[in-house]
Structures are given as C-alpha cells and as structure tokens.
C-alpha cells in the first residue's frame, strides 16, 4: 500500500533531485582531486633532474603529504551540526571554493614561502574538507528519496574514487606539458567553476529550491516522511551516542579505512620493493583500482534499489549483504595479494584492483545505515563516524611501518595483509551482528508533520 502510494506521486523522467545528485557528484570529484593533487605534483616539484626544483628531504615531503589530515579531523564532529543549522549548501560551497582558492595559491606559496607555507595551505584545505562527508550525508538525507538512495547516493560518493583516478591519470600529462604548477591551476579552475554553478542551481533541501516542481517536492517529502514546516530540532546526543547500530556502522567504517588506507599508502612500496614495479611513476596503472571501485559502485547501487523495490530481502539484510561484499571481498583479495609470486605483475595488479574495486559495496552498506537510522541527524552521525575512521586512517600506515622493517621481505608484508584482512573480517562481523536499518524513534522527536504519510514503516 505504501509502495503504491509513493509510485503514484513519483514524477516521470529526470528531476531536480537528479541535477542535485550530479552537482554533488562533481563536488566529491573535485574535492578528492584536490585532496590527492599534492601526491602527484610533489614528484615533479622535487625532481633533481629539473633545473628549478625544491630540495625537500623525504621527511619534509612526508610532512607536506600528511599535513592535510591534521586539519581534516578537527571539523568532523561540528560539521554535521553546522549543516543542520546553516544548511548543507553553504558548507559544501565553502569547502570546494576555499580548496580551489588555496590550490590557485599553492605554486606561489611554494616558491615564496617554502614547505612551511605549503603545509599551512594543506592544513587549511584539510580543515575545510572536514565539512565534506558530514555535509554530503546531510544533503543526501534531504534530497534523495528512500526508493532511490541506493543508486543516487552511490553516484554521489563514487565521485571521490573518480576524483582520485582522474588526478592520477591527468597529473603526469599536465606536468609534462605545462609544469607542476598547472596541476594546481587546473584543479582551481574546475573547482571555482563548480562553485559558480552550485551557487546558481544548488539548494540545501527540496523545500528551499526555487526550481523544483510541486510534484517532485511532494514525492520526496512523502518518501522521506517530511513536512513543509519541519523545524530544526536539537540533536538528542544521549540517544545518538548510546545507539548500538550506529557504533556498528562506525566500527565498520573504521575497518574499511584501515584496509583502504593501508592499500592506498603502502601498495606502491610493496610493488616496488617486492614485485619490482613502481606504480607511483605510472599514473594510469595506479588509477585502475579506483576506476574499478568507481565503475563497480553503479551496479551495486542499482542492485540495492532493485532488491528493495521487489522486496526480496529486508533493508537491513540488503545493507548487510553489500557491506559484506565491500569488506570481506577485499579481505579475501588481500590474502591472494600476499601470496602473489615475485615478478607476476599482472596477477598483483589484478588482486590490488579487486581489493579496492569490490570495496564499492560500502556505499550501499554502513554508509546508508547511518542515514537509515536517523535521516534528520545523519550529518552529525557521519561526523562522529568519519572522525574515528580518519584517526584509523592515520594509524594504519604507522602500524605498517612498524611491522615492515625490511621492505623487500614478502613475509613481513604478509603480516600487514593478514592484519588488514583480519580487521576487515572482525569489523564487518560486528556490523552484521549489531546493525539495523530501522529508523530510530528519536529521529522524529517533537517533529511536526502535516503530510499524508508520516512514515514508510
């Protein structure tokens, strides 16, 4: 009955929600491009074969590359609350526009302020990008109908992986043609262009949009159980922090980041020292795992909507299924990668691509559970999750460095892969046992509603 009601008011064809999805997809793409552009540019910036280069030691380069995350963690917790009170449009615009302006200034900062000013710029970029994930989760909870969030939310978040792949592929060509400075200028122009477009067409919610039709607005409101006059209620923090299903999602997020950042930061070294191939100097090859994750995210998102649309299994079990693909899939692939014979580059690249590619299942797993539990507070909850997960993303490479004393010894690398595989397994097992997608009663506390259908439950 509920399904029939929603289908009766669902507008045909593309709508404003799809335009918002595309704009937010581009926001993720450009944000992540600017997140990783320094990793590619610094190779050319410190190339001793160039007449003009920066004589930065390996430790200084490492400091520059890590400085982004010093700022990134700080605003995770307040970002979700800010999005609820000032609107997601303002925060995501601030994040992309300031990152773009800092990218524009980066070459000048390097030439006149040295590595110290470059680090300062990267800290500021990380600080403002701290808004991205919590704000994006809030915007998804406002714009994407429940019947479409499998595909549309996946499209938005998959922009991050395409942004990484995009930067890895084009940076080498741009630097060779116009110099490393052009890497930052390209990112700046694209990011500022997006800012102008989003200021014109973006909106914090359907209710605030000036271009949405009444039919599409009604469809989104009925699907999400939301009213025109809904007020911004204070977050029930005692309920949020004691919500076990939320912590199941947070722990799964931490496990995902441990494995993902172990792969992202340590694979080039493993390939170079053990397998004899340096992926860092081959941007196209380096981008394959991220392209695979980007491409696999679409069929997984579509399958989520198809499964739920036909009622084959419950929402909770659908989230369990795809989260298991996203975490236990890489766990198995990591074990295969650890036993790849020396010199078998093709098999190693295949296993690495699988390890990262099937990780796309997370987009239809714990990521959506955070929205399922409490759409009204999903930004704040995502801030909590991303705060802890990004602490893990800093710790994981440090643990790897502690374990691997001889970078040419495959036995030591196996310990790293076994550890990551075990963490993938244990964190997803915790998720399977304690998660639920049932909307929590405190999501709707003191909510005023005047639409026909308050809830789809």
TrEMBL record:
Matches recorded under InterPro entries: MFS, MFS_dom, MFS_Na/Anion_cotransporter
Cellular location(s): Membrane
GO biological process: monoatomic anion transport; sodium ion transport
All copies of domain Major facilitator superfamily (MFS) profile, residue ranges: 25-439
Highest taxon, organism lineage: Eukaryota
One Pfam family hit: MFS_1
PANTHER family named among the record's database cross-references: FI21844P1-RELATED, SOLUTE CARRIER FAMILY 17
Cited function: May be an inorganic phosphate cotransporter.
Protein name from the UniProt record: Putative inorganic phosphate cotransporter
Species whose genome carries this gene: Parnassius apollo
């Amino acid at each position: 009955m509920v399904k029939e009601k929603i289908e009766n008011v669902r507008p045909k064809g593309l709508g404003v929600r799809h335009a918002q999805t595309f704009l937010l997809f581009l926001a993720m793409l450009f944000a992540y491009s600017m997140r990783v552009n320094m990793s590619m540019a610094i190779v050319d910036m410190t190339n001793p074969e160039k007449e003009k280069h920066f004589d930065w030691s390996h430790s200084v380069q490492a400091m520059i590359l890590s400085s982004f995350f010093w700022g990134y963690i700080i605003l995770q917790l307040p970002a979700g609350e800010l999005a609820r009170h000032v609107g997601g449009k303002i925060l995501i615009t601030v994040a992309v526009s300031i990152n773009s302006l800092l990218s524009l200034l980066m070459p000048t900062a390097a030439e006149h302020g040295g590595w110290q000013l470059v680090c300062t710029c990267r800290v500021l970029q990380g600080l403002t990008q701290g808004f991205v994930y919590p704000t994006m989760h809030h915007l998804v909870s406002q714009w994407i109908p429940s019947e479409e969030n499998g595909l549309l939310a996946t499209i938005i978040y998959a922009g991050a992986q395409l942004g990484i792949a995009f930067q890895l592929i084009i940076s080498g060509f741009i630097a060779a043609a116009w110099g490393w400075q052009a890497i930052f200028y390209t990112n700046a122009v694209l990011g500022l262009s997006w800012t102008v477009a989003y200021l014109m067409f973006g909106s914090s919610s359907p209710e605030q949009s000036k271009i949405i039709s009444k039919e599409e607005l009604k469809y989104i409101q009925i699907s999400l159980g939301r009213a025109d006059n809904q007020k911004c209620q204070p977050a029930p923090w005692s309920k949020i922090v004691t919500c076990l299903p939320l912590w199941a999602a947070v722990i799964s997020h931490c496990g995902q980041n441990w494995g993902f950042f172990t792969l992202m930061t340590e694979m080039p070294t493993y390939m170079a020292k053990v397998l004899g191939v340096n992926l860092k100097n081959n941007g196209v090859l380096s981008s394959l795992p991220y392209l695979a994750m980007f491409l696999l995210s679409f069929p997984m998102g579509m399958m989520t909507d198809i499964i739920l649309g036909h009622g084959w299994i419950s929402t909770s079990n659908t989230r369990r299924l795809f989260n298991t693909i996203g975490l236990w899939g890489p766990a198995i692939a990591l074990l295969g990668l650890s036993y790849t014979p020396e010199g078998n580059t093709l098999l190693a690249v295949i296993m690495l691509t699988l390890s990262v590619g099937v990780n796309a299942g997370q987009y239809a797993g714990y990521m959506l559970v955070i929205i399922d539990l409490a759409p009204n507070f999903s930004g704040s909850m995502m801030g909590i999750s991303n705060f802890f997960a990004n602490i893990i993303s800093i710790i994981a490479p440090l643990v790897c460095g502690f374990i691997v004393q001889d970078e040419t010894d495959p036995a030591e690398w196996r310990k790293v892969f076994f550890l990551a595989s075990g963490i993938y397994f244990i964190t997803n097992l915790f998720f399977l046992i304690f998660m639920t997608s049932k909307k929590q009663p405190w999501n709707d506390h003191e909510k005023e509603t005047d639409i026909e259908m308050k809830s789809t439950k």
